[in-house]
Specification:
The complex is a heterodimer of chains A (252) and B (189). Chain A has 252 residues and is α+β, with helices and mostly antiparallel strands. Chain A folds into two domains: 81 residues, no CATH class; 133 residues, 2-Layer Sandwich (Phosphorylase Kinase, domain 1). Chain A contains five helices and twelve strands. In chain A, the strands form three sheets. Chain A has an eight-stranded antiparallel beta sheet, covered by helices on one side. A two-stranded antiparallel sheet of chain A has the order 1-2. In chain A, strand 5 and strand 6 form a beta hairpin. With 189 residues, chain B is mostly helical. Chain B folds into two domains: 76 residues, RNA polymerase sigma factor, region 2, helix turn helix motif (Rna Polymerase Sigma Factor, Chain: A); 111 residues, Winged helix-like DNA-binding domain superfamily/Winged helix DNA-binding domain (Arc Repressor Mutant, subunit A). In chain B, helix 5 packs across helix 8. Chain B is globular and about 55 Å long. Chain B starts with a helix and ends with a helix. The chains are: A alpha+beta (252), B mainly alpha (189). At the A-B interface, helix 1 and helix 2 of A face helix 1, helix 2, helix 3, helix 5 and helix 6 of B.
Chain lengths: 252, 189
Amino acid sequence: MKKLDKLISENLQALIEAPCGVDPEEKWQSFKEKYQTELLVREKEGTDTELEREKIRIPFGLKFAYIAAGLVVAFTCCMMNPQVVSAFRDQVFKWVGQNQENELVISQIRNPVTPPGDYGGISFAEAQALALFDLQYPHYLPESLAAVEPQINVNVNEDGYSSVTFSFIKGEAYLKITQRQDVLQSNKNTFVPQDTEVSEITIHNNVKAVVLETEDYTDFQWQEKNIGYRLMARGIDREELIKVIEELKTEA
Amino acid sequence: MEAFRLLYLKYYPKVYSTCFLILKNSATAEDAAQEAFLKAYTKLPTLKDLGKFGAWVAAIATKHAINIYNQNKKIIVVGEEDLMQHFLSLWETKADDYEPCRKYMEKETNLEIRKAICRLEPVLNQMVVLKYYWNLTDQEIAETLQVPLGTVKSSLYRARRLLEKKLTSFGKEYFKRGKERELIRHEKA
């Protein structure tokens, strides 16, 4: 067996020490660049995680503590409120597992893709989970719509961007608020029919909104933080509608 | 950084070749080697014996190489014949010219053992290269790769058995002749 060991050793030496056709100096340059990039990424992310993989390695001693704490929290939440399914506000889903080297790894999927399509008859929490931005909900409603539950619809397009509509309808009164991500640059023309009064108002202290008014409806359009908003209403006073806009907040 | 550069220049080709032996693909071998040096640079203070820097980086690199292999099992396609030619072209013999028969036999045996090493499955290749080239003990391999000592021992045993089996008539004859030569030398002494 020693002869075989020697044979293996000699041949491995010949294989590994033979010229391999790579220039170490050249590779050193690419190593330095890669290292600089990783440093920048770490600074940007403010973590000590590995580049690209988003792995957080945890010292061996803490493994069980983390798992135990996680189980206790999960169990307690389930026991206290078994009906509620909570969504992560920042769309970060986490789970704990082990890699092939038996290291504990917390994996993260950010902004999981929602299949394109129309989602109707859903709750505010479900709409919030589908939309990748903070939804605004009217905390003030005109008296005629005060007790009305909204119909919520979400449309997710092929690029993963979503638009969310809250519709409040009761008799002749109608109020529809649409919120849409406007992250990409685009040009949009709004057709202004005859006999339409066009004006501009200031809302939320410094945001300009365009108002289109006809005998039948009132239409407000404005943009805030890359989200496009549109409020259309029928049978409701303009002043009441401005109150609705001013009371749009991120929680239902 | 300058001191690390010297270590890098010294060990990169060997670490790269080690990964190449496991992955049999130059691009992925390069990735594994670079990743290993990046990790080594950040973890250098944890290395107790600087004299084992090469073996340490190589062990890290083989871990990366095995991960890459597992992730890309269906993607890496390499003509084995090309690889063989690459290794064979680098073949050197230590035999003297006065014994052409022995030289021929040695050459054929070396060729067979190299082919057999290259054909080992990556995990066995990893163990063999760390043990026989980088001179890590079984215990050190187990600690570095964070696997049980028993796994290392059984993998090495399996690898040796496989290599032994792959040695066909030439190799066996070579061993037999070697034993005969030793006996003659012993008798003469």
